[in-house]
Design brief:
Elements (H helix, E strand, L loop, with lengths): L1 H8 L3 H24 L3 H5 L3 H13 L2 H7 L1
Length: 70
């Protein structure tokens, strides 16, 4: 209880740290995510059936089968 009261209510630095964390999270999810992690399924497949068949193939195929196919 002492830690909770001392850290959350009496600390002015906590608010600054929380603000910095929020700004970083917004920056990561709004700006960086679309640049480095584009939507692969949306850009490479037009229909839902093609997306489904690709996902089923990727999920059910093991690494050993992928090596043998090459």
């Amino acid at each position: 209880m002492i830690f909770k009261k001392g850290f959350w209510k009496n600390s002015t630095i906590w608010y600054k740290l929380f603000l910095i964390i929020c700004i970083k999270m917004i920056f990561m999810f709004i700006l960086i995510k679309p640049l480095f992690f584009p939507n692969f399924m949306k850009t490479n497949f037009n229909s839902r059936d093609k997306k489904n068949s690709f996902m089923i193939k990727e999920i059910t195929t093991t690494e050993d089968n992928k090596i043998d196919d090459k």
